[in-house]
Amino acid sequence: MSVFLDTSVLLAGLIDFGPQSAPAQSLLHAVAEKRVDKPATAWHCCLEFYSVATRLPPEFRVPPADAALLLENEIFARMAVHDLPAAGRLPMLQAGARDVITGGRIYDAHIAEIARAAGAAAVITDNRRHFLSALRYGIRVETPAEFLAGLKGKTVAVDDEYPVTCPYCGETVDIYVEPDVKGSFVQDCEVCCNPWRVRVTGRGEDRDVHVTRADGSE
């Protein structure tokens, strides 16, 4: 049974966006040290990583050649990369229609179905609510921090969850921000894959999370 890493983990693990990247970076270190049993991801996640990484704001943007090299050395060399078998594609679309999945959420359903077909025991993602369909197959859905705590035999409090509206596609998306994160960081929309600038202000009950376009198009 494998551990399946979502696009959000690949991005935060391979590109330093600040404190918010720390759990994903630690997880990829654990993969490199072979402390994670049968790590895997989807070919779709690799394409999403390349797409987002090469059009981030200038301070984070990765040149195409470097993005391809990161995928080669950090992903293909260290984990299995799966795709959905041809026989599973039409049933996946039919299931998506039955579940009334709309817009870019079909991409998350696609990744969840690849994880199921690959025999994954867990999907690791920063966007748990997008992968609830995996739960019906008995697949755990955890954040990188939760998974790492499990490796150490510890428990971790659930990160704060905030609903935000994507300034590009208009979808409402839940994002998880660790309690000690302040300031701003970049994260991509899990629906349309465009980059956000996420700003975190205040603390406790007065904490506020706001997203704007990170590509300067506003």
Descriptive notes:
- The protein is α/β, with parallel strands linked by helices and 218 residues long.
- The protein folds into 2 domains: 2-151, 5'-nuclease (Rossmann fold, 3-Layer(aba) Sandwich), CATH 3.40.50; 160-213, no CATH class.
- It is 34% helix and 23% strand.
- It contains 7 helices and 10 strands.
- The chain has a 5-stranded parallel β-sheet with strand order 3-2-1-4-5. A 3-stranded antiparallel β-sheet has the order 8-9-10.
- Strand 9 and strand 10 (208-213) form a beta hairpin.
- Helix 1 crosses helix 2 (22-32) and helix 1 (7-14) crosses helix 3.
- It is globular, with a radius of gyration of 17 Å.
Name the helix and strand elements from N-terminus to C-terminus, one letter apiece: EHHEHHEHHEEHEEEEE
In total, the number of domains comes to 2
**How confident is the prediction overall: mean pLDDT?**
87
The SS-based structural class is alpha/beta
**Hey, roughly how much beta strand do the residues contain?**
15-25%
Number of strands: 10
Taking all Cα atoms into account, the compactness measure Rg is: 17 Å
Indicate the CATH topology of the largest domain: Rossmann fold
Q: By CATH's scheme, which homologous superfamily of the largest domain applies? A: 5'-nuclease
Record the strand order, biggest sheet: 3-2-1-4-5
Distance between the termini: 44 Å
Uncertain ranges: none
Q: What share of the residues lie within helices?
A: 25-40%
Named CATH architecture of the largest domain: 3-Layer(aba) Sandwich
Which geometry do the CA atoms define? globular
